[in-house]
Each structure stands twice: as structure tokens, then as C-alpha cells.
Specification:
mainly alpha, about 110 residues
């Protein structure tokens, strides 16, 4: 496991209860790494903060190579209409009516 990218190792750790689903945890791992990018006071005192940030950036870039692997095993993800929110296949029920907006008033043609 030590030869795997850091972000993959973290994703696998996060998916310990369902090891085969580790690709679904890559974004969670990326979020954690992004938080770690800014060193705290003790970390800054111990070493070079810019080197640390560069290493975290390198680890975060690895997620794009993992995304190709994950896309082979996971169904494609979508987004909401505005493209703001990621939607997984389980984000809504399988009832297509969930996506229909019902308006009580009738539209009038001008």
C-alpha cells in the first residue's frame, strides 16, 4: 500500500468498512488534504510551509489520475441544473417525477 498515491491510501482508509468502494471516497480524501494544506503553528515552526503546501498540491493532483480508475468502476456522476451540486445515482429516488416541478397556475399565452 505504501507505493500507492497518498490520496488513494487515504480514500482506502476512509472506505475501510467497504474496501471495494474506495473510489467513491477520493473526493473526501481530497477535502481532507485540502484542509491539511495550510499548516498550523506547530507545523510552521517545525519546517518549511511552502514545501509542505507544494507536497499537498502534488498529492491533490493525483486525484485526476485516480478519477480515471474510479470512473471505470463507478457509474458516472451528474450535477444539478446549475452545475453547482454533484449528484450521485442515489441522490434522488428512482421516481422520475422527483425532477418534475408542478405549478398550480396555468401559463397563459400572450
Amino acid at each position: 500500500m505504501e507505493n500507492r498515491p497518498l490520496i488513494e491510501r487515504l480514500a482506502r482508509h476512509l472506505a475501510a468498512d467497504q474496501p471495494e468502494n474506495w473510489p467513491a471516497r477520493v473526493e473526501d480524501a481530497a477535502s481532507i488534504l485540502a484542509i491539511l494544506k495550510e499548516p498550523d503553528a506547530a507545523m510552521r515552526e517545525a519546517g518549511d510551509g511552502s514545501a509542505w503546501a507544494a507536497m499537498i498540491d502534488a498529492a491533490l493532483r493525483e486525484r485526476w489520475s485516480l478519477a480515471q480508475t474510479a470512473s471505470e468502476t463507478e457509474p458516472p456522476l451528474g450535477t444539478d441544473e446549475e452545475g453547482d451540486m454533484r449528484l450521485t445515482p442515489d441522490a434522488v429516488s428512482h421516481d422520475r417525477a422527483d425532477w418534475v416541478h408542478v405549478h398550480n397556475e396555468k401559463e397563459t399565452r400572450s
